[in-house]
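Much of what follows relies on a compact textual record of a protein's fold. The record below shows the convention in full:
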Amino acid sequence: MSTDGQGAAVVVRNLTKEFELASGGTGVPSLMRMLSHKAVATRGRKVVALDDVGLSIGEGERVGVIGRNGAGKTTLLSIIAGVSSPSSGSIAITGDIHAVLTIGSVLRDELSGRENIRLDRAVHGLTGEEIDAKIDEIVAFSELGDFIDRPVRTYSSGMKARLAFSMGAFVSPDILIIDETLSVGDAFFAAKASARMREIAAEGRIVIMVSHGLASIVSMCTRCIWLDEGRIVMDGDPVLVTAAYEKAVSGADDADLAAKFAVDDKAGFGSHPDALESLRLEQDGEMLSAKARAFVPMTIVLKGSIPADVAADEIDLVLTLRRVDGRLITSRRLSDEGASLRGTRALHVRIGLVPMILGADLYRVEVAVQRGNDVVSRKSRVFEVIDEEGQYGGRPLLYQSPEVSVWPVETTP
């Protein structure tokens, strides 16, 4: 705890952080230009990462910070951690801080996990005996097994997350700052990490974390701060703040992605454009707004009706998936899979893609009701695939062809 006998605290007043960024292609000059001593014309633009932010965090609070990319989340944590300084305003800290701002920031790749733990303990002023007393507890918590004695460069991102969090969680700081570390961990470790964070907060310490995983914020935090364009939009109960945030960004995400494809993804086409009422995407039973996770099965839920002047036994479904640059990923017909709509007039089916194995990118999925080669009705959605694990050796387009299955919504696959 803090040496002055007071409880841990963070007080931020009128905090502003500005960056000057090069623009118009005038970044770092070439080696040839530097050697020729020619003047390098520079232009810049000012970016306000934080704009007059004020907040106070008291002992025992577990605070989650959310917001879209570029909202100022990491900048705020960096200033609180002392890694960056504000352009104006003030910040007062009571207690010592341990920050895990990126997964690799506290790890040395060439050292083993155990050696990283020893070095980190020594940096925090622990003696050899104190390190030995803690190291077994940290190793057990990380669940890395034999990997603890292997170089960190051989670890996956999830293993690095386990080690980085375990090291920070057993320093016993007054203020623990975590930026996205848990987003790549598995559900079991995240639950254990959440319990450990509650223990830290119960001792009067402060936990501040940034995460795009809203469920993690709700389960781990007692308070949530929503940042947008460097300003606090909402500060309060995690359930209320995350719900408001989801509602605000879902429509914006859909519009942004559709704009990148330069199409109206909600429009219907064909001889009977109103025959298809809706097309929605789901993962793990939850409806997606605009973002999907790689390696998680995705289901397309299609609802509508077959027009009275179209024979049901002539109807086929065609699934088409394209990348944002127009490249065709796959095109499948329901009849090719040996399935049919079973002569029903009501059209309410689920199309399963198992597994969801697209590379991280923007995509457009389209389902058309066709009679032969004639389009009766067509619906499409634009979505972005997020690969939280990260892949090595390039940027794959499609890891493996998906298995496509179609079944009426009233039945199970």
User: Anything to note?
Assistant: The chain has a mean pLDDT of 77. The first strand starts at residue 9 and ends at 22.
